[in-house]
Amino acid sequence: MAWSESKAWVAGADNAPLYANLLQEATEAPERNAGRRKVLKPTDMPWEMSRQGLLKHLLNEDLDTRMETVDAYMQIIPAGSRSGKHRHLAEECLYVLEGRGYDLHQDCDVEITDTYFWKPQEEVKRFEWEAGDVIYVPPNTIHQHFNADPDRPVRLISAINRIYKQCGLNDLEQLEDAPEYDPSVVLDGDRIREYLRAR
């Protein structure tokens, strides 16, 4: 052969239909997607007692919807309470459905070489918000949501791009749990109403 490296690249006897599988998956996508849900009813959206707080998942890759790139949940923060505190590489936006409060954000310096390293900056910034506002959380920012109303709950809708996780960048780290977090609690409508009446 004319190429000097041919002794190296012709080695190996394994065969695999990787391109054929990709093509087959693309061919079958319309039929597969036709069976995936475009509308979810409230009963299709699972509750979760999470370390981040009380969540109702609206869109998630485990819910078998047509949505390929976005995860979304509704978060309920009881009167005078707060969410957990966490950090993730993906940027996030939250729409404030009801209530008022504030966020604490702490930017991080990031270094990505053969390892991934982040270090919180000294400054913690406070951002006030109320119903109708959109909260933007930049990539790799430590953040936490606080309900400033001692009598009424806050409801937020969070949307985050799933593509980070699919690219192997699911850098999610929980730094503090929400006060309500109790892994033994099973959430349903009645239990959520109890949290809304608390205080």
UniProtKB/TrEMBL annotation:
One function term, GO molecular function aspect: dioxygenase activity
Domain Cupin type-2: 74-158
Domain of life according to the entry: Bacteria
Keyword Oxidoreductase: yes
Keyword Oxidoreductase: yes
Keyword annotations: Dioxygenase, Oxidoreductase
Signal peptide range in chain numbering: none
Protein name: Quercetin dioxygenase-like cupin family protein
Species the sequence originates in: Modestobacter marinus
